[in-house]
# Entry
Amino acid sequence: MLMHDLFGENLFDDWFGFPDFRELEKEMDRSQRKLYGHHANHLMKTDVHEMDDHYEVDIDLPGFKKEEIQLELNNGYLTVNAAKGLDEDDKSKKGRVIRKERYMGSMARSFYVGEDLNEEDIKAKFEHGVLSLTVPKKETPKLPEKKTIMIEG
# Structure
């Protein structure tokens, strides 16, 4: 019988609860590596919308709590840090882990917002796993109009 392979996993194993222990062993090895590794840029999915006087930034941070997220403004860069710790008591409450796809660790992403902004200018709200930021546009000094210099001689 031909079985389809969806996203690298056997569909029928999930339906009938038959774990593939070879895959489980590989997955456990991968979980020991540093969190997210080369996939980190795919995890903090971000949308940026430009309005007349500000930018609206929405960052997906599913599974994080407000207390696990930190915003820092330094030299014109706004950095979003999200860190999630492992709950050791979770193992004893829920039994032996058969499959683990949610990991602990941290991730960060930086955005250049300009050196004219301070912490009070940026507004942040966290609801339903989405961090929403409002970043105002600051007036940039206008460059002098281009003028032609005449050459004598």
Summary: The CA atoms of residues 147 and 153 lie 19 Å apart. Strands lie at 5-6, 9-10, 46-50, 54-60, 69-74, 77-84, 105-112, 123-127, 130-136. The longest strand covers residues 77-84.
